[in-house]
Amino acid sequence: MSLLSIHIKRAGYEPNETKVADIQFSIGQGELVGLIGANGAGKSTTIKSILGLMPFFEGEIVKEEKMSLSYLPEQPVFYDECTLQEHIDFVAAMEQLTDEVVTERVTPLLELFHMSPHLHELPNTYSKGMQQKAMIILAFMTKPDFLIIDEPFIGLDPIATKILLELIRQEKERGAGILMCTHVLDTAEKVCDRFLFINSGELLADGTLGQLQATSKQPEASLFECYHQLIAGERHA
Fold this sequence. Notes:
The chain is of the alpha/beta class.
C-alpha cells in the first residue's frame, strides 16, 4: 500500500529556475528507499518538495490520509535557549503525546545513545555526534507513519550507527515508510529495499539492486558500481 506518491513536474528556488523536473515515485508501508545522488543532483530539492518547503513547485504530493511524518535533517537544528528535555517536551506537546507515552518511548532512546546525563544541557553546546543523536531521538519518539532521513550517519561513531540502523529496521517492521538520503552506498545496499538515482535534477533510475544490475548490465555489481555505470552512461549519452 502506497503511503506517499510523489510527482514533481518541476521545482526551484526562483520563478524561472528548475532544480528538479519530472521526478515520480511512490513509497509503501514498511519500505525503505535509498535516495542516491551526487552533491547538487537534486536530492535536497526533492526532499524539500515533499515537505512543502520549495518556493516554486509544480506537481503533486499525495499522502495517505492522516499520515504522520518525521524529518531527520542532515544539519541538526535546535532552539538556542532550549535544553534537550525542553525540545522533547515541545515535540510531545505538538504531537499530543501523554507523559506515559513519552517516558515509554524516550527513555530507551536516551539510554541507547547515552544521552540521559545531557538532558538538561543545551544541544547547541553538544558535539556534532551528540547533536545527531539528539535529532534522532526527537525524530523517532513520535513513531511516525513516514520518515525522511537525510545523511543520518554523518558524525555518528560506529556504535551509534549500528544503533540507528537497528532503529530503522524496527520502524520498517512496524510498517513505517522511509526515504533515506545517503552517500554511504555500502550501507544503503545492505538495508534499503529499493533505490532512486537522481542526476542533474532528474530521476535516472528506480529499482531494486537486482533491477539496477540488469539496467547497468552488471549482474554481480555492487550498488556503488551500478551507480557509477549508470551515471557514466548518462554523461556519455
